[in-house]
Amino acid sequence: MKYSLLALLMSVLVVMSLPAQTGQPIVTVMDFETNGVSENEMLSVISLLSSSLFQTGSFTVIDVAERDTILKEIEFSLTGCTDESCQVEVGKLLSAEMIVTGSLRKVGTKYVLSAKMLETSTSRRVGSTDGIYEDIDSLLGDIYPFSCRLAGIEEPAADVSQAQVEKPDSRKIIGFSVLGAGAVTAGIGGYLLYAAFAFNSETVESSKTAYLAAVEGDDHEALYSDYLSLQEEFSGKLVTAAIITGVGAAAMGASVFFLAPEKEKAPRVSFSVLPAPGAARIAVHVNYQGRR
């Protein structure tokens, strides 16, 4: 009778000491059965499991240290308390609405972790999960997802215990590379176009000078020969610049294939270069989902 009153008093004190979190059940993790692993490894696992259950935001957790302190104060020992019925009674003493029991075993070279969550009022199982791991490090790295599976809540999209570097999107890398190369090429082509027209302006002035000299000297054949030579040189510069600019523009257009979302319809890109003496036109056409 004296023990029952003391246990009831301690249960009241436990409830008063826990943070007020409306709607969140109180849970504690009991010692796990072990086979082939040390007690320190087991304690590390259940401590991390307690922390992970708290981190889910779904429970008020009595952690391992607090659990042991309370049981020590009421002079209750967990030694020999390995069956579920005993552990459920311990959970009641702690005023926990749920307890987590389980086992940690080493089978061959692998670690096997099994756990289940029980209601202390009914001993009904409300959740369970297990995992097989290559080593203790991978087991510890999976503790948070493990706790989510145990609690029946959505697992994290990525391992929250280990920083993972997002793999680069190769399509975007290629797309931006092509876009950059195209922009540089188009810029060079644009400069060459500017230089070609500047050359043409100098050619016109030279032709005027040569024309006046030819009129005075009546040397029309030399004038015409010089004119054809200058025009041929200008046309060569213009065509070269137009082709380089066109290649750059085409590369920039092609980059859309890589940068566009994969689920979307790929655009169609076409271009045309129309060189002519004294002028050039570059046309780029992009047709995306039927609209130009």
Task: Please render the helix and strand layout as text.
Layout: H1 2-17, E1 26-29, E2 33-35, H2 39-55, E3 60-62, H3 64-73, H4 84-93, E4 98-107, E5 110-119, E6 125-133, H5 136-141, H6 143-151, H7 170-217, H8 220-259, E7 268-276, E8 279-287
Parallel strand pairs: 1-3, 1-4, 2-4
Antiparallel strand pairs: 4-5, 5-6, 7-8
Helix pairs in contact: 2-6, 7-8
What does this structure look like?
The chain has about 290 residues and is an alpha/beta fold. The chain is about 55% helix and about 20% strand. It contains eight helices and eight strands, in the order αββαβααβββααααββ. The chain has helices at about 1-15, 40-55, 65-75, 85-95, 135-140, 145-150, 170-215, 220-260; strands spanning about 25-30, 35, 60, 100-105, 110-120, 125-135, 270-275, 280-285. The strands form two sheets. Strands 1, 2, 3, 4, 5 and 6 form a six-stranded mixed sheet that branches. Strand 5 and strand 6 form a beta hairpin. The longest helix has about 50 residues, at about 170-215. It is rod-shaped, with a radius of gyration of 40 Å. Mean pLDDT is about 75; it is low at about 1-20, about 160-165, about 270-280 and about 290.
